Amino acid sequence: MSALYTFVTRNPKLVLFVIFSITIYMAMQMGSLRWETDARVYMPKGHPAIQYDEKIEHIFGVKDAFIIGIKNDEKSIYNTETLAKIARITRQVSELPGVIANRTLDVASLATATAFVGTDTAMGAERLMLNVPETQADVEALKTKVQQHADLFVGNLVSADGTAAIIRAKLKEGADNRYQTYWQIKAILAKEMGESSEGQWGDWGGEWGDASNWQSADNQWTKEEQAQWHAEDSEPEVVDDWHQSSADQTAEGEEVAEVEDNGDTFFLAGRPVIEVTSGLHALEDLKVMIPMLLSVMAAALFLIFKTGRGIIIPLGVMAGAIIWTMGSMALLNVPMYTISTMLPVILVAIGIGDSVHLMSNYYNKVFEDPYRPASDVVRDAISELGAPLITTSITTAIGFLALLFADMPPFKVFGLFTVLGIFFSWLFTVTFAAAMLSLMQPRVAGYLAKRRSMRVHTEQDRLTRVLVGTGAALLANRKPALIVLASVLVLAAVGASKLYVNSSWLSDFKEGTEVRVATDILNERLDGSIFLNVVVEADDVGGLKSISLLRKIDALQEYAETLPYVGDSLSVVDFLKSMNKTLHAEDEQYNVLPATTAEISELLYLYSVSGQPELLDEVVDFDYQRANITISIKTDQTKYLRTIIDDLKVFVDTTFKNEKVDVNMAGSANNSYIWAELLIDSQSIAIVFSKVGIFLIAALMFRSWMAGLATVIPVALTTLIVAAAAGWMNIALDVSTALAAGVAIGVGVDYAVHYIFRYTREFNQCGNHEEAVSATLRTVGRTIVFNAVVVSAGFSVLFLSQFPPHVKLGAFVVAYMVISCIVALFILPLVYRRRVAV
Hints:
- The structure is a single chain.
- 60% of the residues lie in helices and 7% in strands.
- It is of the alpha+beta class.
- The chain folds into three domains: 2-40 and 276-497 and 674-831, Multidrug efflux transporter AcrB transmembrane fold; 65-113 and 157-269, no CATH class; 521-669, no CATH class.
- The strands form three sheets. Strands 1, 2, 3, 6 and 7 form a five-stranded antiparallel sheet that branches. The protein has a four-stranded antiparallel sheet with strand order 9-10-8-11, with helices on both faces.
- The two termini are 33 Å apart.
- The model is unreliable at 197-259 and 452-459 (pLDDT under 50).
């Protein structure tokens, strides 16, 4: 590396020209960065759960939907104005290009819902709202229909108390469709309230534009294409009839603004809304955190160095590494995930660490001889730090490279590009920073004058006195100190054993956030916001007509509805009960399954000629071989989902053991459950791998197995202590806590590496452990403290994030940095010492 250092210091202008040229090119590429917020990308491609989920989606047409809620606490939704709004919004949403509207049940609401009607010998089906009710008598008639078929509609489309109803729209795949539809629906709702789509609904100025921009040339959705889409994909006899029945209420809602306030309020929920909101918040985070991060770093650097170059050069290293890393993502067409918003923070923490060490050593060299040529001073400073910088970069990279063991693709991407960013940080430090310093005249003013007056590296400095004094006191009382340490580790082991896994997509948002408020309303008034699909697959065609099997499905539903947080369930059994009741003049005592398989077959035959054969598409397949039971759940916390799914599996194994069927799980609830399991397994492997990798690299660099072990001790103890604190404080292990451990290992290991490098040098000079420790604390100890303070300040910027998990990650990393620093400076001298060669 000495040749590189010599070239940089002798040709600083050429080096800077090349760096600036590449940086400008990379910055230009960043404009093509794209976001991906689909929750399913967090599952590995080809995972059996995802493959089965896609299979069930294809068979039954079930998928996470965009939920539009309307709430009226004053009049309930059973009034002419509110019902007219539901019809208008349903129609307008079904016409959006990103919405699937091939069948009436694709955009489900009271306006499209269909109920069975008939006599004891015939059965048909008709919509609940053939026309929008115009009188109170019409409203009461609708309400009666809903109550007659409560198992199908109450809790599913309308609340039991009638104060809330929903419109559930299925979306086409793709981020563009999610964002496009989100803003278009917000515009529709704003018009219903007689307001502009701006203001209350926010103003999105990002890549996807706002609702008014989606008919622009950039969107590609022309009127001709929309017409073609409707012609190809919709079924006029199913969809257009109810379009026409509500069309005379208003022309595209043009007269809605004149309607008086009816007490209606709207809310948006569902997994697509969560995904869109995540993307919007991620962009807001970047807008706020990057400027704040640079400001905090500048302030910290000023407090440490009190010179312009001490601020500008480290900031340049950080900015360059971030631009090159993000530009590389754009060039490789790698999407940005929510987790990617933390990448700049981590690169700043790493870049600042290398810069602080270089600048500190540079100023020390200038202090020793301020009249030497700048290039010589810089070359000596960087050559002396060459091995530690390379070692820390490698060990830090190993910490993040371990994320490649994660089964979640976004984690792999995050780990890979963090490693790339680490390389760029090192490269900028040894090229950009060195070249800049080589062009500057070494100065003794300001910071250095103060250091000289304080007798640099002596106990006259307060921080140095604290470091050296504490280290000496611990060494003088080594046995009592080790006993205390052992006691702390025992308590830590007990605390760590209390850790438990729990994650939640909804917890990504602060209390009071629109999507959280909406989901709370949905969970409180309707059946739930997350869904579990239990799929029963019979060996034989027609197997689902067996009364024995149907009764067991009924029993499964009854059991599921007794479990905590389960709102309701829906299956072919509910439709069969409704049919049976319809054939018996809506007598409630017939709201049960028929007694025999023959009666089931008769019901299904009458249904098949009812004119609405698609009504059962989401609950049973055409051959009656597969049945889908949809269980609505009122929480997405994985600790509760785990209990629900495990209990259901036990029930299924017991109840269906004599049936010739396979029973499997699918849906967003199941995916969240599996994802939590993958998170823990992969992160556990990653943490072990990173520590083993760091040990091997350090042992190779120091040419000592003991030194390699000593390098791992601080991060191992820190991980245990923080895990113990989380266990004692009942803090769950989730994405943020698991990721924080990886970040801490990657960044925190630097302290041990720098300590051991300096301690080894000092010991080789004096041959005495106590003196070597004291000299190490006087020199590199100060820099380690500075680094820990600056890195902690950088990660504290995450406290401003709109994502609570990111706030938690910031707090955990700050704790990791502080404890890693303390362990490296005060615990490491107690357990690691070199021996004089004989």
